[in-house]
Amino acid sequence: MTAAGRKRASPASIIGHAAILVFGLAAPFVFPSYTFQIAMLWIMILFALTWDILGGQMGYNSLGNILFFGAGMYISAVVQISLVYDVAAYTSAFGAVKVDFTTAQYFTGIGLGIVAAALACTVFAVIFGSMVFGLRGPYFAIGTLGVALAAGELVGGWDYVGGGSGISMPVYPGEPEARSLFFYTLCFVSAISTFVFLKWAYSGRFKTTINAIRDDEEKAEAMGIHTVRYKIVAWGIAAFFLGISGAIFGNMAGFIEPLEVAFPTITFGIFMVVMSLLGGKGTLWGPVLGATLFHIIKEVSWTYLLGWQWVALGTLIIVNVVFFQQGILGWAQEKWPAFFGIVVDDKLSAKGAVASEAAE
Predict the structure, then answer these.
(1) 3-state DSSP: the chain helix, strand, coil percent, rounded to 5?
(2) Residue 355, Cα to own-chain centre: how many angstroms?
(3) Model pLDDT for residues 145-160, shown as the tens digit of each residue
(4) Cα separation, 179 vs 284, whole angstroms
(5) Do the domain assignments include residue 202?
(6) What is the pLDDT of residues 264-320, one digit of tens each?
């Protein structure tokens, strides 16, 4: 919807902020049996938010964002292990070393691993961005998909990091309940940090510029905007947070391997896109809403419709594409603009209606 007007602090935004904080803080205590599933919800929200930076706000539909998730996972693993053991010996199929991490070694390693994953993935985004951002439209989507698939295959053949056999991550030095709460907190904080950062970034010139690239890149370049620079920055932001999520998820899973855990292009890689489209791409809250609904449906279908879960998810995608092409949030904003703080100029609306009648 194109609304001639402005946005103010809306009831929907206030309710959303309050709900997400209250639920996030209370969930592991109210639903202790579902701590892992709710932790995964925060990862899914981070996925959707980071994909939307390019796919929704900038109009570049990347199918390779999963690259940074997997890279972050392996970078964190190498950093954590190398502080204590030789990585090649640790990943040896014959178990060349006795695995024993102290509490201090574990927490120091995971902290440094998360930081290294975020920074290294940002560097990767700059390197790969300089290559793939010469492509546009479907060529860009296919190019990024190829990079992600190639990464999984290359890591699978790299014996130093375990190859196709994978890596067993350091064991959390505490009780299972404490472990669940620790990783839940990391997932929650990472998702909230992503949301807060993007809310800040979208409140200034950055959002206006990447939206201009989405609307007409040639005109944006003619106006003096360094489009390639902004595209790389946008991908770098996504890579930074995806690297963090990969480092956390790898430790939470306890074992990583290249194709099913680190670079799952046909699952997590596609889920990123679907969640953003479901909620409403090009908005801040759309990916959050889409990720929440998608994750709930996914968990329910995996529990009660085992064998039909992909049919259920496929049906959801079809309904989304046919009836809610602008996403659930976009559809709701058209129906109830005032609730979302959208003030429409009545005079302009009346002119539009008159023009429409005249055209008929």
Answers:
(1) 75, 5, 20
(2) 42
(3) 999 999 999 998 888 8
(4) 31
(5) yes
(6) 988 898 899 999 999 888 889 999 999 999 999 888 888 887 777 778 888 887 887
Give the 3-state secondary structure of residue 168.
strand
Q: How far apart are CA 235 and CA 40, in angstroms?
A: 23
Look up residue 263 and give its two tokens. Answer: 């670079």
Task: For residue 129, count other CB atoms closer than 10 A to its CB.
Answer: 20
β-pairing, 342-344 vs 255-256, is: unpaired
- Assigned domain for 222 exists: yes
Virtual CA dihedral for 21, 18, 35, 49, nearest 10 degrees?
-80
What distance in Å separates the CA atoms of residue 148 and residue 142, rounded to the nearest whole number? 10
For residue 2, being part of any structural domain is answered with no
CA angle in degrees (0–180, nearest 5) for 304-258-157: 150
Residue 292 in contact with residue 45, Cβ under 8 Å?
yes
Residue 137, Cβ neighbours under 10 Å: how many? 10
Identify whether 206 is part of a domain: yes
Residue 258 has what DSSP assignment?
A: I
Domain tally, the chain:
1
Pair of tokens at residue 173: 């030095």
CB contact set of 187 (below 8 Å; sequence gap of 6+) = 39, 40, 42, 43, 245, 248, 252
Tracing tokens 């064991």 back to the chain, one arrives at 171
> SS3 for 256?
strand
What CATH number did the domain enclosing 40 receive? 1.10.3470
Quote the CA–CA distance of 314 and 57 in Å, as a whole number: 25
Cα angle, residue 345 at apex, residues 343 and 348 outer, rounded to 5°: 150
| Residue 328 and residue 294 in contact, taking contact as beta carbons nearer than 8 Å | no
CB 47 within 8 A of CB 70: no
| Parent domain of 58 | 34-284
- For tokens 């106006």, the residue is 223
* Burial of 144: CB neighbours in 10 Å, binned 0-12, 13-18, 19+: buried
